[in-house]
């Protein structure tokens, strides 16, 4: 009755995901006696079906989780190093690796999902994949966001005649534009998932599926080998943590770039933001200045050593950055990579969170790298492959230049927050280099202005770009935009009030006193919450 989504709460289980059918898949595992770790893997697999433009078992990502049985935070990194076969010397700019076989990096997602469910879940892989298999075999009607993505990307992929026929066969049922309610069936993907359910992840990494993929990539000029696939191994890591307004926020450590998110919050903790007018010029000026400074530090120190990272997050260094925020002088600097971004950021990522009655809480962020990744759909498998080598830094002169075998820094930030040692929030978002920006903006709304979780996610946000440029959702008042321009921000309003370029956040909060779980999903995409 207030024109808003209702608060979704439960004591039994909660799934927040980028598509309602994927959230239902995770909830189904919880209802069948699974835990959060079973449910997160089922949600991930279902997202592969219902949002194939940004989800695939051939993508990569990371997870941050609270394991109730161990009373600790754990991080699983399933971003594999750049494969040994990658011919880095051939490339000098990002656009060389935008699409095609040479842009395909190693697939970490399937290994990561199986490691989480195998280590901490209780359901067999066949049960975990069953909802995704049913969705792929029986089909599902496309919702608004999916329609937009298919119809936007299909004309772009027509420019790649070696890729387009397989893409069209997999995703364009009538050979042309799709519409709301178009039924998308993916029998090849259903078969692939069924084979994985029967044979395990080695069907991809050491078996017949991997051989088929490697052979197809070779036919397109790719260099990936079975030895590359066999080398994929998820890694358990210790989380990186920082405090903000009484919460301890835990994210993956470098080579993940989530430290930018923590650095922004560390800067902002020196200011009484909650005393300011919400979404007014003083509030937004502080937040944007802190974000731009933190982005510049992340780019200058892309994969910091533990000692360097400790220095970056130290009180002394943070105070220097706060002084720069206070001085009022315009801040000009990069937000993306070492050299300016070439055109619009094409990243496509998804983030989803699950909590259960046992106290487990988990957030995963994973991606294909760009809309439909490399554009390579392997005939007969239903799999669209990533283009994560586009996110490698091959730019001449960059201090972060990537090579075969080197780590692949990743701008993801799945987070778990604790208060007094108890888990209270799982929160993540897609959005490429905007991920760490939009998470900081939402946390300020949630903690400084004490908004309910759903309202904090719905609050207007902005995307900062290289230089001084900022794009803001047009729900920010025009007079605020004008004042921010006067303060040196090259800020403009989008022509819409809600845009996926400001993320697509999914979150689950937990009340440690009652165990009540509250979910929130971002209306900037097809996000939805399902309670058990």
UniProtKB/TrEMBL annotation:
Membrane-spanning segments: none
SUPFAM superfamilies found in the cross-reference section: N-terminal nucleophile aminohydrolases (Ntn hydrolases) (SSF56235)
Superkingdom of source: Bacteria
Region named Disordered: 326-348
UniProt-listed InterPro entries: GGT-like_enzyme (IPR052896), GGT_lsub (IPR043138), GGT_ssub_C (IPR043137), Ntn_hydrolases_N (IPR029055)
Coiled-coil intervals: none
Species assigned in the record: Bosea vaviloviae
Name the record gives this protein: Gamma-glutamyltranspeptidase
